[in-house]
Amino acid sequence: MIEIGIDSFASAMYGDNNTLSSVEAMEQLLQRIEFADQVGLDVFGIGEHHKKEFLDSATAVILSAAAARTKQIRLTSAVSVLSAADPVRVYQSFATLDLISKGRAEIVVGRGSSIEAYPLFGFELNDYDKLFKEKLELLLQVRDNEFVTWSGKFRAPLNNLPVYPRAIQEKLPVWLGVGGSPESFVRAGTLGLPLMVAVIGGQTHRFRPLIDLYREAGQANGFKPEELKVGLHSPGYVSATNESAVAEYYPGYAELWTKLGLERGWPPVTKEKFDYLTDEKGVLVLGNPEQVAEKILRHSDALGGISRFTFQMDNAGLTHSQLMNAIELIGTKVKPLIQ
Q1: Secondary structure element (H or E) that encloses residue 195, with its range
Q2: What pTM did the predictor assign?
Q3: Are 172 and 95 in contact (CB under 8 A)?
Q4: Could you give the C-alpha distances from 79 to 135, 172, 210, 232, 250, in angstroms and in order?
Q5: Bridge partners of residue 8, in order along the sequence
Q6: At what angle do helices 128-144 and 87-101 cross, to 10 degrees?
Q7: What pLDDT is attached to residue 38?
Q8: Closest residue by Cα to residue 63 from 17, 21, 103, 94
Q9: Which pick of 73, 148, 268, 334 has the fewest CB atoms within 10 Å?
């Protein structure tokens, strides 16, 4: 069975002329999480950024507010930038979330595709991978042991020190969020961690060789196939018809990704490129509920089977009402078609 959910970066970029206040944007985000719970979605994730246009720098705080307003939906980061954080505090924050939510917390950890957290918290980008490797090791030790003895390069050692509070879940789920680095896929498999693959451009099936690497590394290290879960995070949007989905989504998508492209050296988004990304194999999961369900299943087949799919719907120009309508369609139409 494929779990279906939403990931959000707590964007304040949507609305008429992007005039939404931060207070309004946060309240509307919490309303969307509450509604996602009511319509039966399985998971809601909040990212981590440290930029003006996003409100998700304190992920666990937002998720804790959502936990008090929801009953069933699992609540996760998407992703926590572990390289620039203290793993002890990350565990404590999400263990506290687990208590508030009565066992619904998860963590997706990664190195982060945005780099602003590194100088902000005093870390060197040259240590990008070394930081993550060391901190992931510590996070897993803290998760699995009440008393921790550990030493490393980037943090003071721990000598048989306890870490509290403890999560309700015996093993607080820790997923590894990855982009396109083969080493990251192998690392997740070697550790037997569930894998969350962020595919934001191109064609989704091209990630199959990397996912095969993950599964091969996992099985070589003694993990069973059913333990090696694969999740897929992709941009997407659902409306009543394909025509309305494109009309509502394309202008803001082009605006947002052209802006990101200027920052990262990518070409601007054109309608021709957008159409390529929405074709059968393209990354954008966009259209009416039937088309979207078919595409998720097609992506799952292409990747050898996935356990979770999350829509990234933050987009310039989309209103709260449009996002609520999309969540309702995902919960009441897309999820039943898939499951």
Answers
A1: strand 195-198
A2: 0.95
A3: yes
A4: 15, 15, 19, 13, 25
A5: 46
A6: 50
A7: 98
A8: 94
A9: 268
- Distance (Å, rounded) from C-alpha 285 to C-alpha 319? 19
User: For the segment 279-309, what is each residue's pLDDT rounded down to a tens digit?
Assistant: 999 999 999 999 999 999 999 999 999 999 9
Average pLDDT estimate for 217-230: 96
pLDDT, tens digit, 9 for 90 and up, residues 179-222: 989 999 999 999 999 999 999 989 999 999 999 999 999 999 99
CA nearest 178: which of 206, 162, 152, 199? 199
Per-residue pLDDT band for 18 (boundaries 50, 70, 90) equals low
> Residue 13 has what pLDDT?
59
Helix (H) or strand (E) holding 196: strand 195-198
Distances (CA, A) of 37 to 28, 209, 245: 14, 34, 23
DSSP 8-class letter at 6? E
SS3 assignment, position 113: coil
Residue 15: per-residue pLDDT: 46
Phi and psi, residue 211, nearest 5°:
-70, -35
Residue 200's nearest CA partner among 261, 149, 140 is: 261
User: How far out from the chain centre does Cα 11 lie?
Assistant: 14
Angle formed by the axes of helices 59-67 and 22-38, to 10°? 50
Q: How many Cα atoms within 13 Å fall on the side-chain side of residue 254? A: 13
31-72 pLDDT, tens digit per residue, is 999 999 999 999 999 999 998 889 999 999 999 999 999 999
- Rounded-to-integer distance, Cα 178 and Cα 78, Å: 11
Cα(235)–Cα(201) distance, integer angstroms: 9
Residue type, 251: P
